[in-house]
Amino acid sequence: MFQVKDVTYRYPKNREDTIKGITFDIRQGEIFGLLGPSGVGKSTTQKIMVKLLSGYQGEIYYRGKELKGYDKEYYQEIGVGFEVPVHFSKLTAEENINFFRKLYRNQANTDAMMKRLGIFDARNKKVDQFSKGMKIRLNFVRAVLNNPAVLFLDEPTIGLDPSNARILKTMIKEYRDYGGTVLLSTHLMNDVDELCDRVAFMVDGQIAEIDTPQNLKLKHGEKKVEVEYNEHDAGDRPSKRASFELETINRNEEFFKLMRTKKIITMHSKETTLDDIFIKITGVEKHA
Amino acid sequence: MPNFLVLLLGEIKRLQRYNIMTASVVVALLWIGVLYLTEIPDITFIFPMLIYVDSTSMAILLVGVTIFFEKQEGSLHTLLVTPINKKDYLLNKSVVTVATSIVTLVILYLYAAIFKEIDMSFTGLLGAVILVSLFHSLVGFLLTYRSRDFTALLINMMKYMFIFMIPTLLEYIRIIQHDLVEMILYLAPTKAAIILLYAAAGETELWEIIYALTYLGVGSIVLFMVVLKKFEQFAVQESGV
Ligand SMILES: Nc1ncnc2c1ncn2[C@@H]1O[C@H](COP(=O)(O)OP(=O)(O)OP(=O)(O)O)[C@@H](O)[C@H]1O
Ligand SMILES: [Mg+2]
Q1: Which atom of ligand 1 is nearest to the CA of A185?
Q2: pTM higher than 0.80 for the full model?
Q3: Which pLDDT does position A273 carry in this prediction?
Q4: Do A63 and A144 have their domain in common?
Q5: Of A91, B5, B18, B109, which has the fewest CB atoms closer than 10 Å, so is most exposed?
């Protein structure tokens, strides 16, 4: 769907490139995650790909044709969800949606989506009377009101309560299952685990690693058992901790000795989470 | 519905909702107040002056206010990722601005015709207002591009008033009388504006009318091209969060 080749970008007033040569591709029908610490250039990358920022170096192909060759027709095919509020605040939700909907040839059933996201009953309220979470949900409806082929989402679940976040994530997955392609930027690893088919980790304006979440876990992951223990006669002295490789634990004498001689307080098996991988990839590379 | 029309209806609705419509009616009432307080029954002299102030400064303000509202609430971002042409977007604001100026003209003219004496051609005034307001809506874009926020826009508009609007007016009503100043003022768009408005009284020389029409007509086309070209840069600036 997209091929991004060696793209660099510098904001007009800056001295340094914000994007320092990124290469990746997004396949049709996948949710592609763009991850990385705050300020690394995720939103900038998205803005380049939705043609808000021009003047990048390198090449971006959409359906085999350079992005610069597309005019406003491009926007008939894509949907963009920003991380900031983006509505006419003195119009109602319904008026906002209706206004934007009329600009497109394809028009989705927005009522159904608003109902699902629980903002249908508030559709005649002015948007400036909406709560933060309601605005975010409205943002999503606005982003998909033209049944886009590609959906760009910038931190779509930040500021949502868990149940609304769940509904939204289900809707994103359904969108993908019907053939839609998604570029999702986020630093919430939960979202990545649940949604993304592939992820790219951005570090310092570059891409450090691209893979599926499963492969990343296999590659960087290790399984451990963490034990919190204390001496039997410890009284109220603080407890101690030890950590053992799960793979070799059945041959680990030290572990058995601990089990026999100490008072075990808690014991957990622990898998490397994407959080750990995030910190490992983004942290290590940064200081390298 | 073509996008231009969708935009136009949306723009008009927002003028109502954001109370900009109300504000411009209040300003029109203010002008009526001025006319009311004028003791002379024949207001042919003062009428174009009010229209002059309205269709220049209000045009600049209207464009600036709507863009800054859109910038502040972020709706400008959204507009930028829809299939709207920037040409449509910009023209729309100009059209709405011109329409607002026309409404003010109609209100004032009706009042003048009913309660006072006025000896001016309405069609002449209408034509002049369209051109003057169009030109100044475009000036409004340029000033908005160069302003960080609404306060900065107000300051830029003040500058425009002190450099162009006020000297032109003072010279036209002969408070300033100086040949060199008069010559120089032919370079100011406001000179063309005031000539065209007073031309509706039927006593302006032909060459002056031709000068004013050419200045504002050609000027509007050139300004529009500049406004169109610089919009991209302005948009990039705006997309910084
Ligand atoms: N309009 C702008 N002009 C100049 N620099 C900018 C502009 N917008 C962003 N930047 C800079 O570019 C860098 C990347 O910003 P960007 O918004 O892409 O980060 P991000 O990865 O989306 O971060 P976050 O997770 O906080 O949203 C930052 O250092 C930021 O200061
Ligand atoms: Mg961001």
Answers
A1: 22
A2: yes
A3: 78
A4: yes
A5: B5
